[in-house]
Amino acid sequence: MPLIDLANPSRFLTLAGRILPWLVAVTTLVLAVGLYQSVIAPDDYQQGATVKIMFIHVPNAWLSMFVWGVMSIAALGTLVWRHPLADVAAKTAAPIGAAFTFLALLTGSLWGRPMWGTYWEWDARLTSVLILFLMYLGLMALWRAVEDPSRAARAAAVLTLVGSVNIPIIKFSVDWWNTLHQPASVVRMGGSTLDRAFLIPLVVMAIGFTLLFLTLHIAAMRNEILRRRVRTLQMLQASKSVA
Amino acid sequence: MTALAAVIRRDMRVALRVGGGALIGVLFFLTVVVLMPFAVGPDLALLKKLGPAILWLGALLASLLTLDRLFTADHDDGSLDLIVMGRTPLELVCAAKALAHWLAVGLPLVAATPVLGLLLNLDAVATGAVALTLLAGTPALTFTGMVGAALAVVLRRGGLLLSVLVLPLSIPVLIFGVAASNAAISGPSPFGTPFSILCALSLSSLVIGPFAAAASLRHGLD
Predict the structure, then answer these.
(1) Whole-prediction pTM value?
(2) Which residue in A232, A241, B85, B90 could disulfide with B214, CB within 3.0 to 4.6 Å?
(3) What is the pLDDT of residues A63-114, one digit of tens each?
(4) Mean pLDDT over the full length of chain A
């Protein structure tokens, strides 16, 4: 089905209603398998059981960037094609992306406590994820600042695209800043290539979390469409009762 | 071309006259710098060390907080609608307006740096380095901030929202501005690398800023 057919919200609602139960089932299955594999994965010889935080942390970090990518595509949809569902997709993706980013920060901080001896380190990766989180919150503030949804959508679309140009620049400058200030003081996981015993659960978990995002996003889009309908009906009702 | 020159001349005149508030930016800059010793203590050695960072933060906040004037006044008196509907490309007009804003607000900040450097116990080389990096970096602040200013006028909300949106985008400029100043003052890393990146940031914001601002004005005003 071409994307243009989905421009009709009613058609999208029917399709979402049909897909969602299956999506929920598949997500639950993949996440269950991933979690089971994560639990039975061997402990790291250096980090012990804390290495298992990775199976939650890395998918969240990956999604924190993936969701901004989804929002950028939706922003293009808003500005270029005026796709009516693109607004809805962009708006509903922002809080979900912010939640994933927050979880990436939280699990990273919990992982950092036993590994680095501190909850927070001004490490380049942590810092750039924190900035990404701030940008998500700014975007959500922008969505909440305007009452008219289509107006807010266009403003947010511009900001999302400017952000997607700037995020790599910010990432690069933060990397540069960190190596300047404290060269190689942080013990990092990277460097060594991952063993298969860790890689397979990690990939399964990454797929599971991506499916989780899809499920949450479609459900949130459905809710947003319904919310807008309710609002339109309420406005109609109000204008009728005045007249 | 004459239209753009007219826009620049008009904006500068409006900014410098009564009610324009261009020089309030410098006053704000001065106030922020004067507040710093009260926060960190009157330790001259420490102030000397923090000097470039304090000056950069002050300039960043000063140029950011004056930005909401970029489009609001024109929006209030209706001339922004004329500009949007006019024949001159909106992107170019946005660039001209930002340039005028930088000439009226950014350049005085650079000019004030030597005086403020004295207050922070910076020597001539350090003051020169900070002034030079500010000269290269403040255009980036103005041109990135312009996007926020355009959004703010579209949304009819300024103030804190604008700051929250623009501040994360200005992090690279802050990083490379302070890094270049520190490299010139204490070394050991070369001054050229961060300074060239700072210039590159300014140049790229010169391209991205007007387009993004024009897009949000064109899509947002109705």
Answers:
(1) 0.85
(2) B90
(3) 888 999 999 999 998 888 888 788 888 899 999 999 999 998 888 888 877 7
(4) 82
Rounded to an integer, what distance in angstroms lies between the CA atom of residue B199 and that of residue B20?
A: 29
Considering only CA atoms, which of B3, B199, B159 is closest in space to residue B95? B3
Q: What is the pLDDT of residues B99-149, one digit of tens each?
A: 998 888 888 889 888 888 888 888 888 888 889 899 999 999 999 889 888
Identify the band that residue A220 occupies on the pLDDT scale cut at 50, 70 and 90.
Answer: very high
Closest CA to A111 of A63, A57, A164: A57
How many Cβ pairs closer than 8 A exist between chain A and B? Answer: 82
Q: Which residue in B151, B179, B201 is closest to A158 by CB distance?
A: B151
Q: Which domain holds residue B70?
A: 2-220
Partners of A68 on chain B (C-beta within 8 Å) are none
User: What is the model's pLDDT at position B160?
Assistant: 79
Which residues in B lie closer than 8 A to residue A151 (C-beta atoms)?
Answer: 154-155, 220, 222
Check if the beta carbon of residue A201 is closer than 8 Å to that of residue A38: yes
Q: How many domains does chain B have?
A: 1
Residues of A in contact with B216 (CB under 8 A): 154-155, 158
Interface test with B, best of A158, A160, A182 (most B CBs within 10 A): A158
**C-beta atoms surrounding B13 within 10 Å:** 12
Find the CB nearest A162 among B147, B154, B194: B147
Mutation target among A151, A162, A172 for the B interface, most CBs of B within 10 A: A162
DSSP 8-state symbol, A48: B
**CA distance linking residue A64 with residue A106, whole number of Å:** 13
Residue B169, class by beta-carbon neighbours within 10 Å (0-12 exposed, 13-18 middle, 19+ buried)?
buried
In angstroms, the CA A51 to CA A45 distance is: 10
ipTM over 0.85: no
**How many CA atoms within 13 Å lie on the side-chain side of A118?**
7
Q: Is the dihedral of CA A189, A192, A198, A200 positive or negative?
A: positive
The 3 state secondary structure assigned to A55-100 is: HHHHHHHHHHHHHHHHHHHHHHHHHHHCCHHHHHHHHHHHHHHHHH
CB contact under 8 A, B215 and A142: no
User: What pLDDT was estimated at residue A56?
Assistant: 86
Q: What is the pLDDT along chain B (222 residues), one digit of tens a residue?
A: 788 888 888 888 888 877 667 788 888 889 988 888 888 888 888 888 888 888 999 999 888 888 877 888 888 888 888 888 888 888 898 999 999 988 888 888 898 888 888 888 888 888 888 898 999 999 999 998 898 888 888 777 667 788 888 888 888 888 888 888 888 887 777 788 888 888 998 999 998 899 999 988 887 776
